[in-house]
Amino acid sequence: MDIWTEWEDHYRAMGLDGAGICKDGIINEEKYNATRPRILFVLRETNEFTGGLSQLLADGPHYPMWYAVARWAAGILQGFPPFEDIDKDAVLQDAIQRIAVINLKKVTGGAAADLVAINAYAYRDRVLLSKQIQSIGPEIIVACGTFDALIWLLDVAIQPGEPHVKAVLDKTTGARVVPFVHPARVDKRATYERLMNLLSPDGG
Fold first, then answer.
1. Is the pLDDT of residue 41 over 90?
2. How many of the other CB atoms lie within 10 Å of CB of 81?
3. Could you tell me what percentage of the chain is helix, strand and coil, using 3-state DSSP and rounding each to the nearest 5?
4. pLDDT for 168-202, tens place per residue?
5. Which whole number is the average pLDDT over 95-101?
6. Which of 75, 187, 201, 204 gives the lowest tally of CB atoms within 10 Å of its CB?
7. Does 46 reside within a domain?
8. 203 domain residue, yes or no
9. With contact defined as beta carbons under 8 Å apart, do 153 and 129 qualify?
10. Direct distance between the N- and C-terminal alpha carbons of the chain, in angstroms, rounded to an integer
11. pLDDT band (50, 70, 90) for residue 47
12. Cα Rg of the chain (Å, integer)
């Protein structure tokens, strides 16, 4: 059964409307499968958008948050060259098509995220979310304001006293999980450099 059919059935079984699901995941299958490392960005929810992220991002990033994601992806894929080298339209267009992106909450939200509701959705949908992540097969997972949920959703080797200071291993997928910020309203250069530090040998 297709995972989106499973999700619709899962919602309907709980008395919820399954028609408004945003289909996320791998943006471009061919480019993703040919790219190393395989990167998954885990976000919270869409903002009044239904449909598929692969269609939304087919011709490159739109809106500031997607440009931020594309910069971070380009940095990881190219070994974090100087910021000026990756902050170019052609580079960002290519980078965002080489990644996967999922939201913890599959139905649309609003301008301000309700983190309690998002975590409740993630907990309720945890079996399907785990199945989706494993099918994507990431080598790096960037938790964009979602690390709190991924602590229990994944099997991460967490240090409870300092959970946000470095990348950690997900023992189920073997991916490095990076606790990071949400891409909305971020400083371009500073967050690029912060991600570089988190993924450096000393930082992760």
1. yes
2. 12
3. 40, 15, 40
4. 889 888 999 999 999 988 899 999 999 999 998 76
5. 97
6. 201
7. yes
8. no
9. yes
10. 37
11. confident
12. 16
Whole-model pTM?
0.94
Tokens of 61: 């990033």
Q: What is the CATH number of the domain that holds 102?
A: 3.40.470.10
- What is the rounded average pLDDT of the residues 69-83? 97
CA distances 35 to 45, 76, 96, 139, 178, Å, are 26, 11, 12, 11, 19
**Neighbour tally for 115: CB within 10 Å:** 14
- The yes-or-no verdict on residue 71 having pLDDT over 60 is yes
- The yes-or-no verdict on residue 127 having pLDDT over 70 is yes
CA distance 98 to 79: 15
In the β-sheet with 25-26, what is the strand arrangement from edge to edge? Answer: 25-26, 100-103, 39-43, 140-144, 176-180, 168-169
How far is residue 139 from each of residues 31, 55, 131, measured CA to CA in Å?
15, 24, 15
Domain contains 7: yes
What is the number of domains present in the chain? 1
Please report how the helices 63-77 and 89-96 are oriented relative to each other, as an axis angle in degrees rounded to 10. Answer: 80
Range of the domain at 23: 3-198
Q: How many Cβ atoms sit within 10 Å of the Cβ of residue 194?
A: 16
Q: What is the pairing mode between strands 25-26 and 51-52?
A: unpaired
Per-residue pLDDT at 112: 61
Contact between 170 and 177 under an 8 Å Cβ cutoff? The reply is yes
pLDDT value, residue 109:
64
**Gap between the Cα atoms of 137 and 79, Å rounded:** 20
